[in-house]
Design brief:
The complex is a heterodimer of chains A (about 325) and B (about 325). Chain A has about 325 residues and is α/β, with parallel strands linked by helices. Chain A is about 30% helix and about 25% strand. In chain A, the strands form two sheets. Chain A has an eight-stranded mixed beta sheet with strand order 6-7-8-3-9-10-12-11, with helices on both faces. Chain A has a four-stranded antiparallel beta sheet with strand order 2-1-4-5, covered by helices on one side. Chain B is α/β, with parallel strands linked by helices and about 325 residues long. An eight-stranded mixed beta sheet of chain B has the order 6-7-8-3-9-10-12-11, sandwiched between helices. In chain B, strand 1 and strand 2 form a beta hairpin. In chain B, helix 3 crosses helix 4 and helix 5 runs parallel beside helix 6. The chains are: A alpha/beta (about 325), B alpha/beta (about 325). At the A-B interface, helix 7, helix 8, helix 9, helix 10 and helix 11 of A face helix 5, helix 6, helix 7, helix 8 and helix 9 of B. Chain B: This is Peptide ABC transporter substrate-binding protein.
């Protein structure tokens, strides 16, 4: 059953260089218990998508200009502030990249954790304390009674990220949005955190949107994938569609360019030429057209729609690609 | 690969220690020492890449900075072409500086924002008194061309470039003096995936062209394996294992290396498997565990691991490990 549906979401930012479209016609959906990965390079709109869903775009610069975000049948783009406050932290939890900046340095761990519980779950401080200890234990923090009285700087990076996850999960949300949750962490700690998220997901049956630039993390953790580039969805499908039969030249290029443990050392890696464009100077038509080796004149005039690849939907997800030439390539 | 690189190493590091005092109290006496690098030995031959991997706080960047003498090591030797550069004065060090250069992780912070690219690239040439103005200018054009930047870049400023292009400027500066060795400290970690491979290709090309040796420091083992001839794994200030990339990946001998390799997410959903996950965090280098500093997290620890610091065992001529499981001693 679809839990969250994002349909043709577009959002714009006012900048010094004028209005830029950071998200353009982005559509995807997440079902309960599913893990959706959003992958892309800096500036592709992964984080803006998360902020739009939470209605946390920086104000007044960022505006949702088109489209709908539906959570359990309720439209979030038009919801008022009171409604959103009931949803944030309660129905949708969020984990941020940098655990140090996501936590308040002058408040104890316990106080920060209890804030959401006291707001959404219970008014009784003793019940809240018990619930806080339980959730800390659940995310694998030893001796939670002592940790509750400590400040963020007394914890290691991995422990801090566990606290941020605990805060996001305190009210047992239906959807967890994790924006680069492991990027600031070491690989061994990253493996711990990813295992923790998937374990908690099984316990609570929640849906997870995992935003990352790391294709390895996507392949390990996700059921379905959205590949974004410069604010648009380039390709979407099950994790097997994207990794085993990528159709978009961008997805193909991205997958080919990463060094793997089994590639021959010191050989030339395939590259995507050029640089990730800024939102002010995007090419017309397909936004990837100026870096695409298969681009034709029509690519820079016509915007390719997201088209379903027939007979290839391995699971419930449809494999869809936004490229004019995907059938020939 | 490693076998074809010959004889006397270009760089030889012996028993290097770098201890930072942790000062406390009114008199700022050293209350403890942060043993960031504690007894490291390694060598790099001309034209070779030695990869250095480890988690944050393992001392890999400190080691790199000691080699370019940004820090004065506490003890040990750094031999460059047979000369010990550990104790040289700044003045005596100058001729060696042109042979040992560095590329930093964050290209924005390592380039002076108020200097044009031309000035940034000219500075090392001026300091080392190379050429007259016209020759230096020609060299700058040559450098820009080598790293794949347009000639008009020289009048521009760092903020006008993307991250990948800035890293190209950093690389151009590092090769300006035709060095023999470049210490690359996480040169691609801050870059986008599609840009990483461009920079890796550039580094590999420049190495072939100029017979450069690299000490390539990174935390991403797949990146390190791609660019390196040999790899050293560091944990809490010590090198625990050194081998060529293929051996390191196929037959890792140290339990820490094995954990590190199994923790890397594989970009292939068909190869998902339940893997043992290393628990715990990296301990503080101020008060490291006794004996083998990895023993509290080690899945294969034994009672003797907390008592003795394992000595280096030579498995093959290219593969050394420090772990009691491979020790000859009882």
């Amino acid at each position: 059953m679809t839990l969250l549906d994002v349909n043709n979401l577009s959002c714009e930012f006012d900048t010094d260089e004028g209005r830029v479209r950071a998200l353009d016609q982005v559509s995807f959906s997440v079902s309960a218990g599913e893990t959706l990965g959003i992958v892309g390079e800096s500036g592709c709109g992964k984080s803006v998508t998360a902020l739009s869903i939470m209605r946390l775009l920086p104000q007044p610069m960022g505006q949702i200009v088109d489209g709908a975000v539906t959570l359990n049948g309720q439209d979030l783009t038009s919801a008022d502030l009171q409604t959103m406050e009931k949803i944030r932290g309660n129905q949708i939890g969020m984990v941020f990249q940098e655990p140090m900046t996501a936590l308040n340095p002058v408040q104890t761990i316990g106080k920060q954790l209890m804030e959401g519980i006291l707001l959404h779950e219970t008014k009784d401080i003793h019940t809240a304390t018990t619930m806080t200890m339980e959730i800390l234990e659940k995310v694998g923090i030893p001796s939670p009674d002592i940790r509750m009285g400590e400040f963020p700087h007394q914890l290691s990076g991995g422990m801090r990220q566990r606290v941020v996850i605990a805060i996001a999960l305190a009210c047992k949300p239906a959807l967890l949005i994790a924006d680069e949750p492991t990027t600031a962490l070491d690989v061994t700690v990253q493996a711990q955190i990813l295992a923790l998220i998937s374990e908690l997901q099984n316990d609570l049956g929640m849906a997870v949107i995992l935003i990352t630039h790391d294709l390895g993390v996507i392949a390990e953790a996700c059921d379905s994938v959205v590949v974004m580039y410069a604010g648009r969805v380039m390709e979407t499908g099950s994790v097997f569609d994207i990794f085993d039969r990528p159709r978009h030249p961008y997805s193909k290029g991205l997958l080919a360019s990463i060094p793997r443990l089994d590639t021959v050392p010191k050989t030339e890696l395939p590259v995507i030429p050029g640089i990730v464009p800024g939102l002010q100077d995007l090419p017309g038509g397909c936004r990837f057209s100026d870096r695409c080796t298969h681009a034709q004149p029509t690519c820079s005039t016509q915007t390719p729609p997201l088209t379903a690849v027939p007979n290839e939907s391995s699971t419930a997800q449809t494999h869809a690609v936004a490229c004019l030439r995907w059938q020939e390539l | 690969m490693a076998g074809t690189v010959t004889a006397a190493p270009l760089l030889q590091v012996d028993g290097l220690q770098m201890h930072f005092p942790v000062r406390e109290g009114v008199l700022m006496r050293a209350a403890a020492y942060n043993k960031a690098v504690d007894d490291v030995s390694l060598s790099i031959s001309a034209g070779e890449t030695l990869g250095l991997v480890g988690e944050s706080g393992c001392g890999k960047s400190t080691l790199g900075r000691c080699i370019v003498r940004l820090y004065n090591p506490t003890s040990g030797q750094i031999l460059f072409n047979g000369t010990d550069i550990t104790k040289l004065s700044q003045k005596a060090l100058l001729p060696y500086r042109q042979h040992i250069q560095m590329i930093f992780q964050d290209p924005m912070e390592s380039l002076n924002a108020r200097h044009s690219v031309g000035n940034i690239l000219e500075e090392p040439l001026v300091i080392h008194g190379q050429g007259n103005a016209a020759q230096r200018s020609a060299r700058i054009s040559e450098l820009l061309d080598l790293v794949g930047l347009p000639a008009r870049s020289r009048t521009r400023y760092p903020f006008e470039f993307s991250g990948g292009q800035r890293q190209r400027i950093g690389i151009a500066r590092a090769i300006a003096l035709r060095p023999r060795l470049i210490v690359c400290d996480e040169p691609v970690s801050a870059l986008d995936v599609s840009i990483q491979s461009q920079i890796l290709n550039l580094l590999i090309d420049l190495q072939k062209e100029m017979n450069l040796a690299y000490l390539f420091i990174a935390h991403d083992l797949s990146v390190v394996k791609h660019i390196s001839d040999r790899i050293s794994v560091m944990y809490l200030g010590r090198v625990v294992e050194t081998a060529d990339g293929e051996t390191m990946y196929r037959e890792p001998a140290h339990p820490y290396t094995r954990s590190l390799i199994s923790a890397i997410p594989v970009p292939d959903p068909n190869r998902r498997e339940v893997r043992p996950i290393l628990g715990g965090d990296v301990p503080s280098p101020i008060n490291p565990p006794s004996g083998c500093s990895f023993h509290p997290r080690c899945p294969e620890q034994q009672p003797r691991c907390s008592e003795q610091i394992p000595s280096e065992t030579i498995i093959t001529s290219d593969h050394q490990v420090r772990c009691v499981l491979h020790g000859a001693s009882p």
